[in-house]
Amino acid sequence: MGSLVDSGELVFQIAINGKVSLSEIREIMGDVFLINEASEPQIKYLLCKGTNLPDVTTKTAKLNRLHGVQSATLALNRDQIINTEFMHVLLSKEISKISN
Questions:
Q1: Are the C-beta atoms of 4 and 82 separated by less than 8 Å?
Q2: What is the pTM of this model?
């Protein structure tokens, strides 16, 4: 998982099914980036960072115990996990939307 070079931080996608706020998610996960959201069923797709696999596993387990969360599932999408350039392109697009 994660970048094979650089800082060693893991970038991963997680899908959270249930009624939970981004602020509650950020309390557990730290920095998150909302990729997409569905209203029925309520699902949030997020990009997150972790320091190592045990950190990611622990945070995911904490999310699953939050009131209102039916499931928090880690997505093992190789392009998003290994290709840090993909992450930079996504973030640049969102930043340009905000600044325009």
A1: yes
A2: 0.67
Contact 72, 16 (CB under 8 A): yes
Alpha-carbon dihedral sign for residues 72, 76, 77, 80: positive
pLDDT per residue rounded down to tens, the chain (100 residues)? 444 445 567 788 899 999 999 999 999 998 899 988 888 888 999 988 888 888 889 999 999 999 999 999 987 655 544 456 666 677 677 777 776 6
Helices then strands (H, E): number in the chain?
A: 4, 4
If you compute the radius of gyration of the chain from its CA atoms, what whole number of angstroms results?
A: 14
Q: How many CB atoms lie within 10 A of CB 98?
A: 6
